[in-house]
Amino acid sequence: MTEDKRIQTAPAAFKADVWAYFGFKAKEGSYELDKSHVVCKLCNARVKYSGNTTNLRAHVARHHDNVALQAYDAMLVPIFTLKLNHKINPRMVTVGKFDGVHPCLTAATQAGKVFIHNPHARGQRPAAHRLSQSAQDSDISLLNINQAVSCLTAGPLGPNTAGDTLLVGSQTNLLAYDVHDNADIFYREVTDGANAIVLGKLGDIQSPLAIIGGNCAIQGFDYEGKDQFWTVTGDNVRSLVLCDFTGDGKNELLVGSEDFDIRVFKEDELVSEMAENETVTSLCHMHGSRFGYALANGTVGVYDRTARYWRIKSKNHAMSIHAFDLNGDGVVELITGWSNGKIDARSDRTGEVIFKDNFASSVAGVVEGDYRMDGQVQLICTSTDGEVRGYLPASKELKGNLMESSVEQDLVRELSQRRQNLLLELRNYEENAKGVSETDSEVGVIPANTQLQTALSVRSATEAQKAHVELSISTPNETIIRSVLIFAEGIFEGESHVVHPSAQNLSGCVRVPIVPPKDIPVDLHIKAFIGGKTSTQFHVFEITRQLPRFSMYVMAVDPLVAPPTGRVTFSINDRPQRVVMWLNQNFLLPEGTNSPDVTFTSLRGGGLLSISMASSGQITLSTDDIDLAGDLIQSLASFLAIEDLSAEVDFPDYFKELRTTLTEVDEFHSVHQKLTAAIADHSNYIRNMLVQAEDARLMGDMITMKKRYRELYDLNRDLVTEYKIRSNNHNALLARLKSVNQAIQRAGRLRVGKPKNQVISACRDAIKSNNVNTLFKIMKAGAAASHASNREHVQRSRVWV
């Protein structure tokens, strides 16, 4: 075996850490061996162990030219392992220096508590306020939140604080806590909940913000708890990260939500969107404008701005992702913790796995910190069972791939696989040539002009089949298509679809029905096996075809469908031919369509969509689907490179529903306040009852004591009933608030650029002031309606004065 320059000379004595490296249980002062063999980490050979290291030394001298064990810290085994006696909630792990010096592992645990592990200041943390000492571990303090924790983070928030601030979010509140002084910094009610949290500077806002994402809304609080930032997004927020996306030296906010989109906000301005095919559960900043992401279906990958570098999909779920330079090459890798307990590190450029390890249970979180306080930052991985492992980056001599197999072994394996593939291909050619010479027929040989042709067409619903887009795959000659494989994101289950006609139905044409669930462009990667009718070997043809964004709309009018009442009107400074080009790129139009005035029928809901353009450049979109109108405007503005676009809007049916929703929000708020007051009254009554019952017990009055406890039992039952009512009321209120936030987002999507941001901001102000009429004026006419309404309000005030 060729000597590996990374291998170092064996130590004179085999120490406990070396034995631990070989997989044995070891403790200081003696060795506890639980196997009869040693595994050589240079070649994975098993060497018999007979009470000393003689056999291993002989093996190394014989097979590795006296090059012995690799240094213990060279193969990235954990440099420390902790067993905490607390469960850890997934995606709720952070590291904070709460006294400004000592890093503390902090995580959410069961029963509405947060534990803080600090082995550096043992016995120096008195219990006070929310903080208490763990009975199971002297290094752990417990912070009692008294409600289910949904997110947490730590970092510098205040301008004059030496230590980090702990931020804990729930579905109703946000707590900023000073762990060192055992005091609340602020405690804010958040009606939209807190599903995700990030701490840092955003855009031109000077102070750091605690930014939380909840029920379609995003809020940012400063160190005093003041609301400094607010915007809305398309669905419930699941992940947040700050990143210099535009390269201007200022942070933008990246938001992952349940509508499968990654949105980029430059303060409250939406600057970019990336569509995925599942809920975006995690985001992490890599470096520069590059960031990693994870989806609910087990997909992880890396983007650089809007360009996706790579992605992989697993049958397991990615529980946590983090950026860390594990192999010491100066570039961070994407570290992923999986639901099956696996930890892997992948190259940010290619997605190649360079390191992996395994926990016995699901990974809860991946963070980093100088936990040993020796000047070296460790990668810290935690499991849901409370196991913690710390890894140091590899030394410079070992930078690159950290897998146990050597580079030479990987290269040999790759070359062997290529050799096997080439031999198989050569054998197929030889069999084809033999068939031609023996039977004088072109078995497996196809004409030189054979091509793979594709066509897309819209098919309306019939009794036998639902409405769909038909993908036709054909050849121009007598060859047949034996099988077709189609790879596409977000359309097929498992992202792939196979068509394999029976032997009796083989032909030169295959038709595949496609039903895209959303209006997004999709690349169809097609592979077809083509050959003769009697072939046993087939040629593989590959082609990529894009499915247009609005392919589920057929250019036809159903006379039974009522014309739409909703409309959007706006003006552009462009030629009608450019609009026709946009239509051809985004719809499946009949040949010869050269007018911007078209009418479509939706294959999903059957509603009508009408697009018309006047000679003045005014475009009118008529549809009852406000989401479709927003998608059309954003798509057209992107195609025509329009930076700012205002619009006049009217969706009578939708606005009627929204007005009803706003009324229900007021009613639910009122009920919520009444229920809260009633529960508070009952709580006071219960305290008095308990005191009276205890007094009766001390006085030996058993009759009165039993009476009071019966009353307490009845009160407790009433409290439980009231709590259920309050819980149902709260859930209904959240659903209505989500609808309101989505309405603001939809009103914004009907504009582009500054008018869009102005509409969202003006709508928020109208809701704050509880001015419903102004809200609808803004949604219909834009932010200008807000100023007009304010002037009207001032004039009325003058008249009254």
From TrEMBL:
GO terms for cellular component: BBSome; ciliary basal body; membrane; motile cilium; neuron projection. Signal peptide: none annotated. Keywords: Cell projection, Cilium, Coiled coil, Cytoplasm, Cytoskeleton, Metal-binding, Zinc, Zinc-finger. GO terms for molecular function: DNA binding; zinc ion binding. SMART domains: ZnF_BED. It is found in: Cell projection, Cilium; Cytoplasm, Cytoskeleton. GO terms for biological process: non-motile cilium assembly. Residues 13-71 form the BED-type domain. Residues 412-439 form a coiled coil. This is BBSome complex member BBS2.
